[in-house]
Design a protein that fits this description.
single chain; about 220 residues; alpha/beta; Beta-carbonic Anhydrase, Chain A; 2 domains; 6-stranded mixed beta sheet; 7 helices; about 15% strand; binds zinc ion
């Protein structure tokens, strides 16, 4: 008796693949040329292909807990996310980088509440959100704001990557900060001029950079970035 996952593998091969066979074979023959690096949280409710209507070959994906970007510190550690950014910008020459956080993010909540002691790597990783945390009890409103602040923080870190800054300043690369509100089915995009996240239905563009410092409604500056 095949298990559920095996059945799904067979369905992909028998139902989906024949309909899109040519596309996959073209992508093999010509290689991949995605225009977008999508850095998203690992959360199972965030489905980049659904949100963007992307087809195979269109998104170069990096997912991690929180959709965080490590500081460009040249520590030569085993930085999977950093390696993916370098590959996407230098080799694939992507034209845009999207950083996509989301509502009800467990990474942001855990950054406030603390991870289990045994989760050594997780504890260290969540420090990447420290600068986005607010000095308040994590109410739903505070969590939402923190999720958005964390997205902007990662955009600022991206601009510290020399190859990202170079391409962005040459007009060859745009940066997009997104906050996906799961329960509304809508992405709110960061508008650098307004210094705010705007629902995609009202926004005039999907976001671009480089960004000036992020000033929130209460006048607080997140970072000198
Ligand atoms: Zn998340």
């Amino acid at each position: 008796m095949p298990d559920d996952l095996l059945l799904r593998l067979r369905n992909f091969h028998s139902d989906y693949f024949p309909l899109h066979q040519q596309r996959f074979q073209d992508l093999v023959a010509q290689g991949q040329h995605p225009k977008t690096l999508f850095i998203g949280c690992s959360d199972s409710r965030l489905v980049p292909y659904l949100l963007t209507g992307a087809a195979p070959g269109e998104l170069f994906l990096v997912r991690n807990v929180g959709a965080f970007v490590p500081p460009y510190d040249q520590s030569h550690g085993l930085h999977g996310t950093m390696a993916a950014i370098e590959f996407a910008v230098l080799s694939l020459k992507v034209e845009r980088i999207i950083v996509c956080g989301h509502s009800h993010c467990g990474a942001i909540r855990t950054a406030y509440e603390g991870a289990p002691d045994e989760a050594v790597a997780l504890k260290a990783w969540l420090k990447l959100a420290d600068e986005a945390l607010l000095p308040v009890q994590p109410s739903p409103e505070a969590l939402r704001r923190t999720e958005q602040r964390a997205v902007v923080l990662q955009l600022e870190r991206l601009m510290d990557y020399p190859m990202v800054r170079r391409a962005a300043e040459a007009g060859q690369l745009s940066l997009h900060g997104w906050h996906y509100v799961i329960e509304e089915g809508e992405v709110h995009v960061f508008d650098a001029e307004q210094g705010a996240f705007v629902p995609a239905s009202l926004a005039s563009h999907s976001g671009t950079g480089p960004y000036p410092p992020y000033v929130e409604h209460d006048g607080q500056i997140l970072s000198d970035g």
